[in-house]
Every structure is written in C-alpha cells, then in structure tokens.
C-alpha cells in the first residue's frame, strides 16, 4: 500500500491568514462558546450543539484549506474534569492541519474538556443537592406520617419502617426489620381465616389494594388495621397501615344506638298503645296494670312496675308484674331503695345486687331471678311524680337493659305525656290525705274566738269560733284539702268539737258562732249530738262560697237540729247571687262582707249599699252583723246606719278563750259615740 499523498496548501482567496494554525485554534474556540455558555439548556442539548460546532469548524474554509495542504490528524479522547474529578470524555474525530503539533489538538480539546467538565460538574452538583434535598423530604414524610409505613423487598423482608408503625404495634424498629411479610398477622386476621399460609397472605394482595387486617402487637393483642398496598420498583411493596380501632368502635356504637332506638321505639309504641286502651274513667291502678301487662310482653322483659312518689320520700307500688313481687300493691318500697330511685331524678339502670339492709325483701327479689333493672322517670312539669321499672331474669339480656338508656328516656317522655297528669293528681291526693290524717292524729289545730258586739251599746253578745292550724296554712285551704281527699267531715267535726270544749271558758250568756259547710248538714244526727252539750245559744254560719244544690234540704236539716239553733250567712254583698242565697236560706243573721265595711265612713257609695242591705235584711226578717271593723269611725258610721252588730280588730283580735277579757272589749265599745255619719 502506498503512503498517503501529501498535498500542498492551496491558495486562499481571502489571503494567507487562514494558514496560521493559531487562527484555526481561535476559530475553533470561538465556535465552541455558544455550546459552553450557560443557557439553561440540558447538558445533552449543549453536547449536541458542541458536535455541530466542531463539525462546522472542521468543514470551514480555512480549516479545509489547511487540511488539504497539510493532511489529516485524528484527535484522541480528552477527559472532562472538574475539581480533579473525571466526569466523562470528549472524543472528537475532526481534521486539523498537520503543521500543528500533536499538542495543538490536545490543547484545544483539553480546553473543551475542562469547560465542559466545569459546567457539567456544576450541574451535577446541583442535581446531587436537589436529589439529596428530595430524599431528605421523603425521609421526613416517611417518619412524620401519621400512618404506619412498612416497606418490604422482593423477598418479603421488611427493609424500612417508620416511627408511627413502631408506636402503633409496640415493636422497636430493629425488631421489625428482622421480620418478613406475614410475621405480623394476628390469629384473628380475616385474611388468615381464608386458610392461606401466613407468610403468603400479604403477597396475595394486589398493589393498590385496601384491605382490613388484624396485626399482632408486641404484647400479643390483636390490632384492627387498614392496609393500603403500593408497588415500588425492584419488587418492593409499601404498606400504609392505619389503626381503625376508633372507627370500628364508632361503627359498633352506631349499631348499638340503632338497636337502642329500635327498642325505645318498641317500648314507646307499646306504652302508647296500652294507654290508648285505658278508659278515661279508669283509676291510676287500672292504667298501671294495663301498662305492666303490655310492657311485659316484650321479649326479655320479665318484671314491670309502675311506682308513685308520695309524701316527699316514699315510693309506692301502684301496679306490677309478676303478681308475686315482694312489695304489695299500695305499699312502699324499703326506705333506702326509695331514696335511690327518687334521688336519681332521671333514667338509670343497674345490675341487681341485694344489699344487707334489704333483708328478707332483697332475698325474695333475688329468688325471683331478677338480673338487672332500669328505671324511667314519669315527669310532670319540673318534678318527678313516679317511675316505670323494667327488669329481666335473662342474664344475656341484662347488659342490653343496663346499656339501653335512650329507650328508657323515651319511655319516660311518653309516659310523662300520657300518664303524668294522672300520676300527679294521685300524688297530690296521697300527700294531701297523709297531711290531713297527720293533722287529725296529732290534733294540730286549736280554736280562737273573736267578740261580736252590739254597736248601739258596745256590749259583747257573742263570739265567733275560728280554727288555726299549727302548720300556719290558711284555714279555708286546709278544709278544702280535707274535703278533696274525703276527710272533710272528720276535720270539721274535730274542729267543732274543739271549739265547743274551749268555749266553756267564755263568759256565759253569749252565743257561739260556729262555721260549717253545708255538706256537714247531711249528718244531722252526729251534729245534733255534738251541739247538745254546748251550754249556750248556737249560731251556725254557712259560707256563701259553697254551692247549695238543695236549699229545702238544708232548711230541713237546720230545723232538725232544734229550735234553739240559729242560722247566719256570711259575705253578704260580695255578689248578686248572694241575695238569692239569703232568700233561700232565710237566716237569722246576715254578715256584711268586709269589702262594704272598709272605710265606709268616707265612702258614700258603700254607705248606700249598707242602707240597701239593711232594708233587704228587715224585709227578709234578719239582722246585720258587720265584719272587719277596725276604726271607731267605721263603727260609728255603721251604727248610724242601723247596723245592729259588729266584729273586727277594733273590738278584739281572735284569741284563745283564756285570754279574752270583757273589760278590754268594753273600753273599745264605750268609745262609740253613736250616729256619726260622714
């Protein structure tokens, strides 16, 4: 083979300057500047530009001229370095003049390598720093995640675990990193129940799947978790693990609440339907029996009781199922049990536990098999009047009864709306009866007497007997309470008997004015026997406020008591109906209401009414007694209007018989001046 021919340099049309090797070097360096200047373009893009520049320069006119004249030289690979670190190589294959020494291409391309190395090195450092920052952020997110994170390699061995997972399961990080997928599977894991090998369980879950699992904690307990699987490169799998204990507890509470509401609705419906079946005229006990029978038909309910609160502390049984319950109907619960029920003031439930103070009663309840009971209050207004008690003998149903308080609250609300009015009335009746019985048993009252004087002479002609109760309650309210509970006759006869006994200490010859209700005249035999030993004239005063249905019967009863019994009507002038009342009864005395007497001396209208009443009384054949006289002016004015008798604080306050003195009354009456009329 022959040697490569050597060519002589061709003459350039532009002159000889292109033949200078240094000019070629400068041209090459200038051409490289666009490729090496930072532009924000990726390194691969700048290398592409570099190749284009080198190729262009190699084919440019000066270089081609030199190449044709001097021959071709192939440049060797040049290192790209930065801070003495080799980052890569540049391997150009371009023609340069042979006249240039071998150092020329090396120098040229060394310059290229150095420039590229610095630029690439800087970008590499930036990329490394960015990658390190990204990795740091990823590690922070990994460690700070609220969910536990487990990462396994392709063999199933755990290679990464975060703090949340360690905290959740109770293991140290080093312990978890010795385990493999499946080692954390608990015995009650729902996936494990499929019969698969524990170590293969997690492998069957497709990446991206969300599965409820149970993981075994370090203390051996089972933890309900939700696991989300995520596929990573190289066969790795990431598991995001979330503790779902609270979520499952909330779901169970919701289901329980729904069951409670269902039972509450059933109880409410049963109670409402039972009360609809109770006739309006039925007694509280009859209504209670219907309620007990209806509620006892609900599965699991073996004991039902309707209880009433009375006397401030007692709880009595109005109705119950079964009939063999140890507390008889109408009887009170043991004091300590009643206290617990009344102090609760709201629904409560408890397991049955006999107490030492229960005694034989507690033993009998236990023998019936009671396991648990729940109490729902019956509320009227702002207070509790009674309760409905549910009980069970089924140990399996006992927790349901104890825990399902919303049902009992609903029971209390329904019973309060449909039953509380009756219960409230019953409570008031029982408490009133107990209070009246206590008054009768302890004789918690005493009589007092107020003088009645003749206004013309000031002489005391009689005394009105009044009753004062030790409780301080108004006498008319006490008597009303007694009649409400059916004890009116007993209380009136008792107070009349006390007044007649105390009246023996009063001066003789004065009449005794006794108050009684028209209903008491129905027992004329007992009343006649009582009045027979009075030892003085008797005036029976009948109030206008009580309706008299049969006036002839009242007149007949008064006549049957004896010819020495006279009749008085009080509160005359208090209403138009009063005149018909007076005409029908034909009394011996008519008492002017205090509304006509007060300041009669200064009121012409009242004086005119008194004159009219005086005319009416004379026509009807009766005499007037003015009540409530407090001043001499009132007394003198009434005397001037021909009112015969008067009583009031001017002549004496109501006092016990032993404290009354004729002298005191005489001094007040002696100051009367006669007919002083305003």
Q: What can you tell me about this protein's structure?
A:
The protein has about 675 residues and is an alpha/beta fold. It has 4 domains: about 15-125, no CATH class; about 145-245, Beta-Lactamase, CATH 3.30.450.20; about 250-430, GAF domain (Beta-Lactamase), CATH 3.30.450; about 445-670, TIM Barrel (Alpha-Beta Barrel), CATH 3.20.20. Helix content is about 45%, strand content about 20%. The protein is built from 22 helices and 20 strands. Helix 16 links the parallel strand 15 and strand 16 (about 540). The model is unreliable at about 1-20, about 55-75, about 95-105, about 195-200, about 660-670 and about 675-678 (pLDDT under 50).
Kindly list the characteristics that best describe this protein:
single chain; 678 residues; alpha/beta; Beta-Lactamase; 4 domains; eight-stranded mixed barrel; five-stranded antiparallel sheet; 22 helices; 19% strand; elongated; disordered C terminus
Helix-strand layout with pairing:
Layout: H1 21-36, H2 43-58, H3 61-70, E1 78-82, E2 85-90, H4 103-144, E3 148-152, E4 158-161, H5 163-169, H6 173-176, H7 198-201, E5 210-216, E6 222-231, E7 237-243, H8 245-276, H9 284-296, E8 303-310, E9 314-321, H10 335-344, E10 348-351, H11 359-367, E11 372-380, E12 383-392, H12 398-403, H13 405-442, E13 445-454, E14 460-469, H14 475-484, H15 488-502, E15 511-516, H16 524-531, E16 538-542, H17 551-560, E17 565-572, H18 577-585, E18 589-592, H19 594-597, H20 604-620, E19 623-626, H21 632-640, E20 645-646, H22 662-669
Parallel strand pairs: 14-15, 15-16, 16-17, 17-18, 18-19, 19-20
Antiparallel strand pairs: 1-2, 3-4, 3-7, 5-6, 6-7, 8-9, 8-12, 10-11, 11-12, 13-14, 13-20
Helix pairs in contact: 1-2, 1-4, 8-9, 8-13, 13-14, 14-15
